[in-house]
Amino acid sequence: MKDFSSILLSWYAVHKRALPWRDVKDPYLIWISEIILQQTRVAQGYDYFLRFVKRFPNVQSLAEASQDEVLKYWEGLGYYSRARNLHKAAQSMKEGFPSSYRQVLALKGVGEYTAAAICSFAYQMPYAVVDGNVYRVLARIFGIDIPSDTAAGKKCFSNLAQKLLDTRRPADYNQAIMDFGALQCIPGQPDCKKCPFSRRCIAYKTGHVTQLPVKTQKTKITSRYFHYVYVKQGNKTWLHQRGAGDIWQNLYEPPLIETKTPQQDYLSSQPYQKIFGRHPAVLKVAPLKHQLSHRLIYADLSEVTLPPAQAVPKGFFAVPFSEVRKYALSRLVQKLLQKAGLL
Ligand code: SF4
Predict the structure, then answer these.
(1) pTM, full prediction
(2) Same-domain pairing of 193 and 273
(3) pLDDT at 1 over 80
(4) Which residues form ligand 1's pocket by a CB distance below 6 Å?
(5) Do residue 203 and residue 227 come from a single domain?
(6) Nearest to residue 272, comparing CAs of 316, 310, 319, 227?
(7) Which domain does 248 fall in, by range?
(8) Is the pLDDT confidence value at 263 over 80?
(9) Does residue 34 carry a catalytic annotation?
(10) Tens digit of pLDDT for each residue in 270-310?
């Protein structure tokens, strides 16, 4: 389509979103905003971005911070590997933020989409961004029904995106297509009558708007059953730091017993007795549902009072009740503690 870019940029001139990372040329700030937006909606990421860059305004301040502090600033945002990768990547930048596409792509946690966004926004390099918004816009306007989550689909969309890119204005063009996907050509049923592409859009003309883009794989959701136990021992409670190989790596939480089924009696289970002995816990918060991208977690919270002499088991540490909020907690743990009036 010959005038694709001019239609898009004219639409953008009217509808451009005012965001704190827009019209910014500092690659560091663009990087932080793009990592936050990888799995987070703009409305939710907005305040996180402002708080994060206020505390860590440049590569050096982020590199010098502790991982615990970085995670604390990420608390509640989810996908915590993003924060750990940002921290590690900042520590790897010995000579400041990299300035070539290849070096940017080599940063921990940066894929092709993010590298294209950083290099086009900060350095005006001609790399087209291809994300979910772009798949949707291109699939509909050009009537492409190759599944976007296959190798062939990915190649097809990225070739087309690169061909359409306005190399004179790569930053504006990339931001325009993402905003167009987020505001005009939205998932579900967009308002096609008000769309500047409506006369050319193949999906609209053939009645296939809601069928495009095509995806083959459905995300498999598994259920897990978490039973948190809040310890009361004098004026202290126990926490532990989650390990590698599971969700919420390096975040903190009260002792947790996981069961395979919701019916299993965790209070008489061996893991419970190993940690708490024969002291019974009392249910404080009934099971609530917590949805993650690939998991549905059912979690409850009980409370157990322990004698002062009982030793803190290996893997846990005692903290005063008032200091729990200083630790980076998952949103689920925050929710449970708040419901029980413990945070
Ligand atoms: S006409 Fe509808 S489907 Fe086509 S690009 Fe516009 S909003 Fe998207």
Answers:
(1) 0.82
(2) no
(3) no
(4) 140-141, 184-185, 190, 192, 195, 197-198, 201, 203-204, 209
(5) no
(6) 227
(7) 222-339
(8) yes
(9) yes
(10) 999 999 988 999 999 999 999 988 889 999 999 999 999 99
